[in-house]
Amino acid sequence: MRVVLETIGLVKKFGELRALDGVSIRIPRGRITLLIGPNGSGKTTLINVISGVYSPDEGRVVLDGEDITTLPPHERFKRGLVRSFQIPRLFNGLAVVENTAFARYGNPGEGIVSGLFKWLWRPFEVETVRKAFNMLSFARIAHLWSRKPSELSGGQMKLLEVARVLMPDNPKVILMDEPTAGVNPVLAHEIFKFIQRIRDEYDATFLIVEHRLDIAIDYADYAYAMALGRIIAEGDPRDVLEHPRVIDSYLGG
Amino acid sequence: MPILPGLTYTLSSLAYAAAIGLLSMGLTLTYLTTKIPNFAHATIGMIGSVVMLILIDRIFYDSNSWLIFLLGPIAGGAAAAAFGVLMYRAILKPLADRGNSVIGLMIATLAVDIILLNILTLILNLMPGEHIPKLIGANVVGFQPKIRVAGIVVDSYTIVLPITALVLTTLFHLFLTRTSFGVAMRATIENPDLASAMGVNVSLVYTVSWALSGFLAGAAGALMAFAFKGVDPAVSALVIVTVFAGSIVGGLTSVYWGLIGGIVVGLAEKLGTTIINNLYRTLLVPGLGLPNISLVNYEKVMSLGLVIMVLLYAPQGLAGVDWGRILRKIKSVKGGR
Ligand SMILES: Nc1ncnc2c1ncn2[C@@H]1O[C@H](COP(=O)(O)OP(=O)(O)OP(=O)(O)O)[C@@H](O)[C@H]1O
Ligand SMILES: [Mg+2]
């Protein structure tokens, strides 16, 4: 097992509250790792610290052997760390297909000078749009490609987020914050099946926050459980789910 | 006295409006990206005027070449762009990173404005002209190529400025829609956090927006040297009022509406004031016996009056007006007749 993403003793404080209280996790390459835990246990905060939205008060984030703790979000993105959001965040000024394609723009368009000559990479553009349509049709929203995100339902926005996060080429780690929230069970299963397919085809690594354990459990390779900012159990997803501390934490609220 | 102004005056009004439009567009851009109202913007434009004056003195003093209209805006724009980048990276960004409020940043731009104004004035006062003895305030009208419109000789800058505004706006539009950096800029304006999570170097986008805004200002400023008949950086104090009025009338939500707002306000100041003055003097002075005074010096009343009207009746500016509904209404009124 090769570890591709590691956090070491992460602490994140919001005033008095220790939203992360010494979180150390190791995410194995080519696996789907679940992150579970009751509301407010710090799951989203962990994703935010890993992706660079917040900088931790203590601890380190290591991606593929490189300490990325102080890098800004776009630098982490360039190094292959991609994320989706619990509450969908989309560009309302851009159409659905543009929102999807945007996640792959980073590559040749990143420099100012080269960015000015986007039309030089016609093939890249065509491929990007084709890939965007592929992702959208998998997510069953390809027919909405020309709409603005504000015209989508909550579930459709969620699906658009999933399509988008799968756009970058060869991402090292894909972080997903509740990808199936508000999506019907049949589609939720399909989303996880697709995640599995991406994992197998590209040897991709996923860290997925999920509340719907009944659905997610069949697709995950490994699980971490959090409560009150700490990791309280880890291991095989079914074992973690049945761990007394985990059951207690859910019952305790 | 005819009510409508003559050709020469109309052309120079259009040119002035185009220059204000370019300035309002740049002011709107840096406001949209970095949320800083830049009170130094008009003085940054004056960098372009100073560059133009120096070019005339050193190169174009006797050539009457059209090249001046290419080289002036490009060199003036580049110098102003460089200053814009310097101002943002060296002063505004460090202040913003330390958590200063919009008010603090605004006051910083006022400070930069005063410093830049003094530097530019100093340069013009100290630098010996090669062919123009005293640079500051020297009349440059004679240094432009001659051109005839409808049989009348007009200042050629009045033709060049609107064309320049059109070209620069078109290029800027292509940049925003056809280049991935432009798309990244639009995305950043809408949601910087999300853009950053999607791989956009937000800080680079901000810096480039200051460069672009500076370029637009410098290019407009270079040509405005002719509109103001000479270069005295201190006029920026008057220009900035009009530029802000233009941006506010546009709504501060879109660069294109910034351009339109600037043009509307610029036209109102020149054509509007003159038409009102002519109406006043031909109708009201003899009719009602009102005092026979000239109203043409009350230009700023027009622009600030527009700002007040917009703030009262269309707080989102022209950009927020439902033009489709108004058009439909006009059509239905016409159809009803
Ligand atoms: N920006 C913030 N400022 C202050 N407190 C915050 C902030 N973000 C999160 N918190 C607090 O930190 C704790 C952990 O929040 P977090 O969003 O990480 O929980 P979560 O596990 O994702 O919960 P959920 O399952 O409801 O999404 C909560 O008590 C929350 O109120
Ligand atoms: Mg959460």
Can you describe what's shown?
The complex is a heterodimer of chains A (253) and B (337). Chain A folds into two domains: 1-80 and 170-253, Rossmann fold; 90-166, no CATH class. Chain A is built from ten helices and ten strands. Chain A has helices at residues 43-51, 73-78, 96-105, 112-115, 122-138, 154-165, 185-202, 213-216, 237-242, 244-252; strands at 3-14, 17-28, 32-36, 58-63, 66-67, 81-83, 173-177, 205-209, 222-227, 230-235. Chain A starts with a strand and ends with a helix. Chain B has 337 residues and is mainly alpha-helical. Chain B has a single domain (7-336), classed as ABC transporter involved in vitamin B12 uptake, BtuC (Orthogonal Bundle). In chain B, 72% of the residues lie in helices and 2% in strands. Chain B has helices spanning 7-34, 41-58, 68-97, 102-126, 157-178, 180-190, 192-197, 202-227, 236-250, 255-288, 299-313, 323-336, and strands at 146-149, 152-155. At the A-B interface, α2 and α3 of A face α6, α7 and α8 of B. The site of adenosine-5'-triphosphate (ATP) has 12 residues of chain A, from β2 and α1.
Question: How is the secondary structure organized here?
Answer:
The complex is a heterodimer of chains A (253) and B (337).
Chain A: E1 3-14, E2 17-28, E3 32-36, H1 43-51, E4 58-63, E5 66-67, H2 73-78, E6 81-83, H3 96-105, H4 112-115, H5 122-138, H6 154-165, E7 173-177, H7 185-202, E8 205-209, H8 213-216, E9 222-227, E10 230-235, H9 237-242, H10 244-252
Parallel strand pairs in A: 3-8, 3-9, 6-7, 7-8
Antiparallel strand pairs in A: 1-2, 1-4, 4-5, 9-10
Helix pairs in contact in A: 3-5, 3-6, 5-6
Chain B: H1 7-34, H2 41-58, H3 68-97, H4 102-126, E1 146-149, E2 152-155, H5 157-178, H6 180-190, H7 192-197, H8 202-227, H9 236-250, H10 255-288, H11 299-313, H12 323-336
Antiparallel strand pairs in B: 1-2
Helix pairs in contact in B: 1-5, 1-8, 1-9, 1-10, 2-3, 2-4, 2-8, 2-9, 3-4, 3-8, 5-6, 5-8, 6-8, 9-10, 9-11, 10-11
The complex binds adenosine-5'-triphosphate and magnesium ion.
